[in-house]
């Protein structure tokens, strides 16, 4: 998306907003919805009315706010505190020297001003910021060797004094790529069989991230040649699943589906069994509690 805009009448779009929100799955957007610059249209096409470009976009305003943010770090406060302390000490010493000259009666104004000027210049730590900047630059170079990008030198000191780092969103810390874990299977069912069934209910043509991840998890993609898809029902937000009618080379016709866990459990008839088991377990725990605590 080159700019911010509001969609006109169109079919639903699939828009990847990972750069803005960190979410790995594309979001659905339809007629009248706002779309933002920096996002990527994964599926569909539409016309939109542009209502923001450049720094006036959502992404541009965010980047501008980050660039304008000025915070005084602990390191900067410490340097300023040291400088102010030395200046105060120099002011006290100059006051004592002037008072001493006035009381002694030996007042040479020119010599006294020269001495005060030398004392003031000597008390100001002119080289300290330079030395500290060089030291932190060396630290930034060492961090760069470990693939860490330092955009602000003072952040090195801040990070070194950190005890705990909390993040309110993990999506921004990922690679924006889905990965398939080891499937949980019941006795008599293999992991390869579950992945194959899910792959048969997937399509590679629509570039769906979930379908692509499942198809990539197949150990042997040639297995799909033994099956022919007779009818494929794409994902529906209402039914929350995809379904495929498959015809195998052995002459068998079967159906496979993938989708939300509760939907698949209901298709398999397991949901009622689980409900009954949970009710029975809760009754047992209640009876034990009554017997134990009266």
Helix and strand content put the structural class at: alpha+beta
Major sheet details: 3 strands, antiparallel
Task: Average the pLDDT over all residues and give the rounded result.
Answer: 80
N-end to C-end Cα span: 66 Å
Output the radius of gyration: 34 Å
Shape: elongated
Number of helices: 10
Order of helices and strands: EEHEEEEHHHHHHHEEEHH
Low-confidence stretches: none
| Largest sheet, spatial ordering of strands | 4-1-6
Number of strands: 9
- Bin the strand percentage: 15-25%
Helix content: 40-55%
Notes on the structure:
This protein has 294 residues and is α+β, with helices and mostly antiparallel strands. It is built from ten helices and nine strands. The protein has helices at 18-21, 58-68, 74-104, 109-123, 128-144, 154-160, 191-200, 209-216, 261-268, 270-293; strands at residues 4-7, 13-16, 27-29, 34-35, 40-43, 48-52, 227-236, 241-248, 253-259. It has a three-stranded antiparallel beta sheet, with no helix packed on it. Strands 3-2-5 form a three-stranded antiparallel beta sheet, with no helix packed on it. Helix 3 packs antiparallel against helix 4 (109-123). The chain starts with a strand and ends with a helix.
């Amino acid at each position: 998306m080159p700019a911010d805009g509001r969609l006109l009448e169109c079919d639903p779009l699939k828009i990847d907003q990972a750069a803005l929100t960190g979410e790995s799955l594309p979001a659905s957007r339809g007629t009248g919805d706002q779309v933002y610059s920096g996002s990527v249209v994964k599926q569909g096409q539409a016309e939109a009315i542009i209502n923001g470009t450049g720094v006036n976009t959502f992404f541009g305003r965010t980047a501008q706010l980050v660039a304008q943010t000025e915070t005084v770090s602990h390191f900067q406060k410490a340097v300023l505190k040291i400088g102010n302390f030395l200046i105060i000490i120099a002011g006290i010493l100059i006051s004592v020297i002037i008072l001493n000259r006035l009381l002694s009666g030996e007042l040479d104004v020119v010599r006294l001003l020269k001495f005060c000027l030398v004392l003031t210049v000597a008390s100001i730590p002119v080289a300290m910021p330079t030395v500290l900047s060089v030291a932190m630059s060396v630290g930034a170079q060492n961090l760069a060797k470990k693939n860490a990008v330092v955009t602000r030198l003072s952040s090195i000191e801040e990070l070194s004094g950190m005890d705990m780092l909390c993040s309110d969103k993990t999506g921004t810390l990922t690679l924006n790529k889905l990965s398939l874990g080891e499937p949980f299977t019941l006795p008599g069912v293999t992991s390869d069989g579950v992945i194959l069934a899910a792959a048969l209910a997937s399509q590679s043509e629509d570039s769906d991230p979930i379908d692509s991840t499942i198809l990539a998890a197949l150990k042997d993609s040639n297995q799909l040649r033994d099956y022919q898809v007779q009818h494929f029902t794409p994902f529906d937000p209402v039914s929350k699943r995809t379904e495929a009618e498959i015809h195998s080379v052995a002459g068998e016709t079967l159906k496979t589906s993938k989708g939300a866990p509760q939907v698949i459990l209901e298709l398999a008839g397991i949901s009622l069994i689980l409900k009954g088991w949970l009710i029975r377990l809760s009754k047992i725990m209640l009876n034990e509690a009554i017997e134990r605590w009266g």
